[in-house]
Amino acid sequence: MVRLSTFFTLAILAVSTMAVSAHSVQPPHTQSVMELEQHRLFQADSHRLLQACKNSAQARRLQERNVARRAATLENLQARRRLGGVQLDTPAPTTQHQSSLAIDNVADVNASDLFGSDVKCVLEPEVTEGPYYVSGEFIRQDVTEGQQGIRLYAEMQFVDVNTCEPVDDLYVDFWHCNATGVYSGVVANGNGDISDASNINNTAFRGLSPTDEDGLVSFTSVFPGHYTGRATHIHILGTYNGTVLKNNTYSGGVGAHVGQLFFDQDLISKVEATGAYATNTQELTLNANDNIYSESAATGFDPIMEYTLLGASVEDGIFAWISVGVDMRMAKSVSAASTITTNGGVANTNSMGPPGGMGSGSGFPSGSWGPPPDSDVTQP
């Protein structure tokens, strides 16, 4: 059975003044009068830009291509699953991001009904990159590295709200924790087994890839787990004008668009009842209790990914997507917890650092990664 929503979501990653840590139990954030006024003005301007985009010829043409492409992608993924392997390396709580459509094959329904024909314009504020961002990750789309979990094929599209055109050649960082709530690439209190020094060299569930001419980028991963104080989520960071290095990593550039993506609570519950997810002893935070999600939902934003199951069960895999409106005039400074170098992962002592007060959970799978090929990246 395949189910998903009948509308298309457009979210803006805007400049936010939230200072709350993305990986701790979150206290209420207090904004200054100036911050609130800046945020209000940005929202008003963004709504105006989005409405203009929604009614534009560019948006209609782009949506037609989206419907056709996503239908073809889903059919491809379903065919691969039926053949016995899932090599997926081809390119708020009250709102459900599934529909009542019950089908065994995407060919059985109209693609516009399945993927939506209308653009629903909603805004998402730009949020913190959190304390577990790692710079210098490999340019790649498959970030699974053989790790356990329910396969997730995630597609994101970036549209410039000033021109209504897709943003091409935007390098998108994509990262999240593993099935038991631990991030690779960072050794820190509250992030799995702090005695496992090899985790600094792990790169699973991290990667970046450029958007194409339709502003699209996709990643093959597994559905993220959870950890104390945060709802289940994925981080994304858009960067442009950087340099692709000879070891297939990306350096420099302007980090303009930072965001976090969420999932329907019903989907999370189904996933959490399976396999490695069910062994996670950390407390599960609901979307409604997550400050970053709640701040988005309270102002009409919708940072939840649309999705469909690849088969009758969630364990057959998930295809999820979202379109993200960005203002290419904006710029954002980010802080990396560590950096991939020729000597492997190196912690950045100047980063914002991990929070305290985290619950404990299963450690990230052990195993060191050798240093990447020769790189032009210097150690921090």
TrEMBL record:
Species this chain originates from: Phytophthora cactorum
List the protein's name: Intradiol ring-cleavage dioxygenases domain-containing protein
Q: Specify one Pfam family.
A: Dioxygenase_C
Record region (Disordered): 342-380
Q: Which residues form the signal peptide?
A: 1-22
- Keywords attached to this entry: Signal
Write down the InterPro entries for this protein, in alphabetical order: Intradiol_dOase_C, Intradiol_dOase_core
An example molecular function term from Gene Ontology annotations: oxidoreductase activity, acting on single donors with incorporation of molecular oxygen, incorporation of two atoms of oxygen
Specify residue ranges for compositional bias: Gly residues: 354-364
The segment(s) forming the Intradiol ring-cleavage dioxygenases domain are 129-231
